[in-house]
Write a structure and sequence with these properties.
By secondary structure, this protein is α/β, with parallel strands linked by helices. It has six helices and seven strands; from the N terminus they run H-E-H-E-H-E-H-E-H-E-H-E-E. The protein is about 30% helix and about 25% strand.
Length: about 170
């Protein structure tokens, strides 16, 4: 369930955050926030009318985030990222503008990995972005076969160094 034993460094967080246009991207989803390295930065950048859906399956991480976040724009969800469509619908939203995934896709079964990537794709608006970072290139083929456009960025100033996939629907 955990992709790294230490939180993402600010260089990785900032490089990913730069991919989001907070003026127009009002529905943002985060998969696997862990300790909240991205979450707290996202909250600072959110517009007043934005929503941030945060999916954390690990109950200890979820409870930690729940104790620290009281922002009404943030919807914390202790459930699988596979259920993104269900939670968007509950909040009367049809699509997300951006999905950021910190999930360790390599560590997941093929069935769950495919389900998460496919449900994310279905839940994104046209031209929406799915941003996935990994510590290996194992997700590359899956993402290139799913999305129209995949831009690959690297952050060597992180432990471990990370590959960032910025995918556009």
């Amino acid at each position: 369930m955990v992709g790294s034993i230490i939180p993402s460094w600010r260089y990785l967080v900032n490089k990913i955050i730069k991919q989001i246009d907070f003026k127009k991207d009002n529905v943002i989803v985060e998969f696997g926030p862990g300790t909240g390295a991205f979450t707290f930065k996202l909250i600072k950048k959110l517009e007043e009318n934005s929503k941030l859906f945060v999916f954390e399956l690990n109950e200890a991480f979820y409870n930690n985030l729940k104790s620290k976040i009281s922002d009404p724009r943030v919807i914390l969800i202790n459930d699988s990222a596979e259920k993104i469509g269900k939670y968007l619908a509950i909040h009367n939203l049809s699509k997300a503008d951006v999905i950021i995934s910190s999930l360790p896709l390599t560590n997941l079964s093929e069935e769950i990995r495919l389900s998460i990537v496919n449900n994310a794709y279905t839940s994104l608006k046209q031209k929406g972005k799915f941003i996935q970072y990994q510590y290996s290139s194992t997700a590359k083929e899956l993402l290139m076969n799913t999305y129209k456009e995949v831009k690959i960025l690297y952050t060597i100033i992180n432990m471990p160094p990370a590959i960032i996939y910025v995918c556009e629907k």
